[in-house]
Amino acid sequence: MSSTTSTEPAASGAAAGPLGQIAITGAVREYGKGGRRVTALGPIDLQVPAGEFIVLVGPSGCGKSTLLRLIAGFEPVSRGSVLVDGGPPVPGHSAGVVFQQPRLFPWQTVRGNVALALKYAGVSRSERDGQADALLARVGLHGTGDRRIWEISGGQQQRVAIARALAVPTSLLLMDEPFAALDALTRERLQEDVRQVSAESGRTTVFVTHSPDEAAYLESRIVVLSGRPGRIAADLRSDLPRTGIGADELRETPEFARLRAEVATAVKAEAATAERRDRG
Ligand SMILES: Nc1ncnc2c1ncn2[C@@H]1O[C@H](COP(=O)(O)OP(=O)(O)OP(=O)(O)O)[C@@H](O)[C@H]1O
């Protein structure tokens, strides 16, 4: 992906604290009412310094997406607090979010999809197309602005979704299994690119995945959640070499294999514990 753009994350309002910092304290999310109340997540305590890239993994249904929605401000906490840049997150403003499905507007062009996000971010009409093209170039889609959504591949659609998330003027990027529906080759290319985009933009990034391989490839801080209600079971950090080494070469190192196995073992152990508990 190209690093040439003038669209850098902007300050997200008057909130105090370093831009992109996430502070989660005793956060719990419950669903339902009365006797049917279910704790889906927590309590969670998690600090993510500004500019850090963390990967969230855990058994199915443990609350990974719920945690992301709390950080995005799409849902409130039932107890505890989630602060972004020192204040409560504001939905649509505190974070750029990429979902498993690109969720693009099919009646808009590729450029139009990104320009719409820029419109909501308050960018003037005269600047939108230029900034949209710069963001598209940044995610490897130079020259595709006039194409229709149905004319581009699934991988390219997900790149448009990333460009759209980068259009949100915040220092936080949240990604919820964004590559799960893509073929292996496209997925690997996008993994490489997302690491680069995140590093170039300096955004704090929280990336949810089911895949131990993806987790190990993407980052050195991997947070493993337990089975429901999701709590932090492990906060793994590795010193895997990540600069001056190609993706294939990295995947062939014994350190990478060890980290991938460590993540897989931790997730399997949490899933087994949750299963035993659910069976009573
Ligand atoms: N709106 C809701 N109402 C009731 N329960 C919900 C709601 N959203 C999520 N849940 C429950 O909360 C739990 C956590 O769901 P969540 O989707 O966050 O898990 P996840 O780890 O992202 O799952 P997966 O890996 O399968 O995508 C699940 O048991 C789910 O059924």
TrEMBL record:
It comes from the Bacteria. InterPro entries: AAA+_ATPase, ABC_transporter-like_ATP-bd, ABC_transporter-like_CS, ABC_transporter_ATP-bind, P-loop_NTPase. Residues 22-252 form the ABC transporter domain. PROSITE patterns: ABC_TRANSPORTER_1 (PS00211), ABC_TRANSPORTER_2 (PS50893). The lineage of its organism: Bacteria, Bacillati, Actinomycetota, Actinomycetes, Mycobacteriales. Keywords: ATP-binding, Nucleotide-binding, Transport. It comes from Gordonia caeni. The keyword Cell division does not apply. This is ABC transporter ATP-binding protein. The keyword Nucleotide-binding applies. GO terms for molecular function: ATP binding. SUPFAM superfamilies: P-loop containing nucleoside triphosphate hydrolases.
